[in-house]
Every structure is written in C-alpha cells, then in structure tokens.
Amino acid sequence: MALAQTPARERAADGLDETSRRPPRRGRKTAYQGSARGFIAPGVFLVAVLLYLPLLWTTFLSFTEYNGLGDPDWVGFDNYVEMFEDPAFVGSLLNTLLWVAGTLLVPVGVGLGIALLTWNLPGGIWLRLPFLIPYAISGIGVGVIWSFILSAGGALDQALAVFGITDPPRWLVDAPLNTVVMIFAASWQGVGVNALLFTIGLQSIPKEPLEAARVDGATGLRLFGSILWPMLRPLTAVVVGLSIVASLKTFDIVLSMTKGGPGRASETLALTMYRETFVNSDYGLGSAIAVFLSVVTLIASILYLRQQLSQKHEM
C-alpha cells in the first residue's frame, strides 16, 4: 500500500512545489502593469514635452509683458483687460463666431445634401469625387485659388462683365462680405470630406428599418426625419464637433486671401494672436489671446458633447 501511494504523493508534492514556485496573482498583475507603464511612458513623455509644457509656458506668458528678449515682467491680468478693450479683438471675435456659424451651415449642410443625393445612385462615388479633391489642397493653396477668382478684375469679375455687370461687389475689400466669401472658399474645401463621412454613416444604416419605413409609406423628408437623421446623429456629432473646432482656429485661408484686411476688418482670433505675437512682438498679449481661444474651444467642445450625450440618454 505504501508503494502504491508513493507516486500520488510525489505528484502532489511536485504540484505543491510548482504552486510555490509560481508567482502570486497580485504579483503577476503588478508586473503586467509595470510593463504597460514602461511601454506608454515614451508617448506620455512626448505629449508632455510637446503639448503640456508649451501650454503651461503660454499661460505663464499671458500674465507677463514680454517681447521675446530678456526676462518676462509679471503684469497680472493686464493683457486680458487690454485684449477686451481693443476694438480689433472684439471684431476678430465676432468674425470668428461668423466663421463658426458659416462652417456649420454650408460645408456640413451641403455635405449632408450631397451624401443623401448620391447615396443610392449607381456610380455615386464618381459624383462625390470632384467635391473631395479640394480637400487634398492646403489652406494656403485654397486661399490663393480663390484670391485669383475674387480679386478686383479677377476671374469672377470678368465672368460677370460678360453678362453686363461692370460694377461688381468688392469681394475681398468690403466687410463683412469678405468674411462671407472666405467662408464659402473654406466650404469648397470641406464639403467633400463631410459628404464622404455622411455617406459612410448612411451605408452603415441597417436596411430593415428603411424597408419597413418605405412599406409604411415614408419617403423623402419623412423618411429622412424619422429614420435617417436619428441614425446619423452620432456621426453628425463628430462632424459638427470637428467643424466647430476647425472654424474657431481659422487662420491660413484668411492670411492668404485678405491678411485680415482691409485694416483688421476680417481678422479671426487665430490671426489676431499671430499678429500680436510674431508681428508686434507682444508675446504676453498674444499668449493671452491664445489662452482665451483655447478656453473658448474647450468650452464649446464640452457643451456640445454634453448636449449630444444628454440627447443620447434621452433616446
């Protein structure tokens, strides 16, 4: 009997030895967490160096008077007071709000319309392609193209002269007309990618609800309002959020088309920040505008996302 039980005892003893040699579960979890932290540490360090440190430095400079030479002089909130007392800053803030409204109405609305019109058409991708090509052009390139079209005596004025219109509007000179035409120039660039995103959203909608709605007689606007729009709402939140952020930091198209002129009538907040910082060498005031623009962008994004999430919970 003792001999028969020996192998079992040996196996049990070996099992106990294995268990004793195996690290405890908590220890393994700690080791895995340590390895994970080691992998993400370079990325966190890179983000901290390239994003958070410049943000902290810019915030510090916004409370100082600094021209790029010597040491910054602490002035408290003087830059923020000066910023809001400057009529040019108030004008650039209003122009930025006009950009937000325009880029929500035109590129998002037109992109949605193009997606709806070409969604089920054979060869619809080829109909959307001409709208998508301008997205590959840089903002400066878009500005140069539309400056050639809209400048005095440019392509548009010559085309209007053919129809007998010899005294056209001064597209890039009169405010707020110059801001409006620049919004249309930016929309020419952004419509295609919005149409592509909305098309992807439409293609992901299940066919069963659409077929059931059509059987019930829902077509056109009724089908769009009852089926398509509610199912596109999550994607619409992304498109609108990206448009808001992009419009708040509009810079390159305005710089290349009007340089903020005439005077400073068509400046946006981003261009005002650039002018004060790199043209006037007032790094303190430029940093204050940058901080204000960052805070406005953050607040707008949070409010919009909270609204979308509350609507989602209500549904």
From TrEMBL:
The keyword Iron does not apply. It is found in: Cell membrane. Keywords: Cell membrane, Membrane, Transmembrane, Transmembrane helix, Transport. GO terms for cellular component: plasma membrane. Its main location: membrane. Residues 8-21 have a biased composition (Basic and acidic residues). It is a multi-pass membrane protein. GO terms for biological process: transmembrane transport. The keyword Ribosomal protein does not apply. The chain crosses the membrane at residues 38-57, 97-119, 131-156, 176-202, 223-248, 283-305. PROSITE patterns: ABC_TM1 (PS50928). This is Carbohydrate ABC transporter membrane protein 1 (CUT1 family). Residues 1-30 are annotated as: Disordered.
